[in-house]
Each structure stands twice: as C-alpha cells, then as structure tokens.
C-alpha cells in the first residue's frame, strides 16, 4: 500500500505489474486484496477522524452573513505586517466604521460603501474583515477623525502632556511621560 493512495484516494502509476504478460491471470491476488482491505480501513479511520474534527469545529462556529443595507465595522489592519512602523500598537483601533453594505459578491464577500477618504481602496471585502454593527446612538465613533492611509495605517499626534514623573531603575533615572494623543493635528 502506497502513501500516495492513502493521501489522494486514487490509484498511482507504478512500475510494478500484477499481470503476467500474455495471460490475464492475476499475480499475488492475496497481496492485492490485503492492500485493498488496508486502504479501505485507513479511509474509514480518516473519515471518522475528519467527522470528529468537523463536529468539534461546527460546535462553536457560526457562519457570518450580512444583509444588504446592514452596517458593519471594517478591520483597520487585515494583515499583521501593516502598521509595524508604529512604535506602540496597543491602543490602535481594530475596526473603523460604521459602513453600509451595498451588495453581496459571491458567498463570502461584500461590497461596502467607503467614505471619500478611503475611495482609493477596493470596496469588496471578505466576511472575515467585517464585524456586524448594532445600531446604538451612544456610539461616538466617527470615521472622519481617523485618517486611514492607503496601507490601512494612520498617524497620531500628541495633544498635551498629562502627567510626568521620574522613576529610579537600577541606579538610573528614567522619566515617564503620560501623553494625550489625537488622530487629527488640530
């Protein structure tokens, strides 16, 4: 039994021939039958294992689907490499929005209405890049305050120093500064 058959579930081309030339008598029929039984047993075990893993996954997974007209948040940095130039990524917003869904494209992609500041980006996003927005008037998220650039990063500016203290660490004085940041330079 070849690993190729186990992995791909089909016969492989082999230099071995189980038939005698000139005759149609099968050589080593016992060996072939034993291999076929082993392949069938391995396929059954793989199927059982796949079904078990599928039941584990399906137990907590719920499909994300949106309707046309719903509002969603858009993930700011969909890849880990975007925004590495920034010194601290701890307080960066993960999503911006709320953006309206215009149309469903395929089974897992949506076209969303982007604001003029993001008009140079494509408007179709995978469902994993979107998060449902539940309309609430107490939300104070405004897109015009976050100026997202083409590479999905943005600039922050210091507004004022809120607090300052000096700390002794291993015989050296280190000044700690608490800064209030803003996304616009006004």
UniProtKB/TrEMBL annotation:
Domain Tf2-1-like SH3-like, first and last residues per copy: 69-133
Any Pfam family: SH3_Tf2-1
Identification of the protein by name: Uncharacterized protein LOC113859588
Lineage: Eukaryota, Viridiplantae, Streptophyta, Embryophyta, Tracheophyta
Gene: LOC113859588
